[in-house]
Amino acid sequence: MAMGAPGDDFTPDQIDRARRRKADVLPLRLTGALLGLVATCVLGLTPAGAGLVRVAGQTAGGGWVAEAGLGAVALQGVLALVGLPVSVRLELVNRRWGLSTRSWRLFAADALKGFLVGAALLAAVSVALFALIRFRPGSWWTIAAPGAAALVVVFSFLLPVVFEPLFNRFRPMADGPLRSRLLELVDKSGVTVRDILVTDASRRTTAANAYVSGIGRTRRVVVWDTTVERAEPEEIAAIAAHELGHAARRDVLAATVGGAIAAAAVVVLISAALHWSALLRLAGVTAATDPRSLALVLAMAAALGAVAGPVSSAASRRVEARADGYALDLTGDPQAMVAMQRRLAVLNIADLEPRPLEVLLFATHPPTVSRIAHARAWADSHGEPAPARLGEDS
Fold this sequence. Notes:
Layout (H helix, E strand, L loop, with lengths): L11 H33 L2 H12 L5 H33 L7 H32 L4 H24 L6 E3 L4 H13 L6 E4 L10 E4 L6 E5 H6 L2 H16 L2 H23 L3 H6 L11 H38 L2 H14 L8 H7 L5 H14 L13
Parallel strand pairs: 2-4
Antiparallel strand pairs: 1-2, 3-4
Helix pairs in contact: 1-3, 1-11, 2-3, 3-4, 4-5, 5-9, 6-8, 8-11, 8-12, 11-14, 12-14
């Protein structure tokens, strides 16, 4: 996709602001990601993780079930503590830039709920995994691989109705011109959407966004209340059209299927690695049936995730660009698309000049200037007036 120049659409002050925020945030994000990976690998590739799992299990009298379940909670707790200083620092930076509206009480509640949900899920998966490994040591992966794939699909259905409400409140978008405009787009797209909802993002941030989640009867388009309050109606229509593009192209379903296949592949690869006695010795265990090998399993999963990350991000960028194209086709309004991209970039203090390596490794969406260039190219190819550049008469 062609890249535009930030100066075409953003003022020098906006560009400078984005550069300064990036200088504050990027080192923290890189540090957080690196710390998480290193901590997971240290726990998994040394006896430290096995020892932690053993001690956690002993608090409930020992035994493989206690080690598998409580060991998972202990490992999750250590990783959460390792990442906490970076999370606190990032929260402070976001407050300084005016992006965070969270109280420390809400910050703590979010962190605690995230930990509890993650620990409970990991503990359940751990107990089920080691039950399989112990009772079917030679073929456990033949059940675990499809089981992991099934879990990905189940969570895609449950995410909007079980997990999202744990962190946010949702309400149907109020009747009025905006809801009517969005429902008109829904009808035009032919997409079945359960509802158009507004979520209380303003409790946490001044940033703006929208998304689509769920599959089938749980599918809904969610618009942040900050977006409703701070963007123009046609800009919000452009955002909604983009989200409808995901639904129309079955992007959530495709991502779910892709995630399910990836989860199954990870199980197969981990199964093969657990036959390597040298790796088990490195982790301080003698057999894969020992729940103390959980830390090693997490380390291998984290390493595989890090390797697959750039591939996943590249696929995501293609999907997002396709959704932009769908939105342009649906609305026929490149002016609103460009205005929306400008609005989101300024409100969210987005990186307007990402380096190619940063895009390659981390970006799940095309850069803002590329998305604006896409809208201008669409206008040119469809005989529509080109959206004005900064300083041009509209």
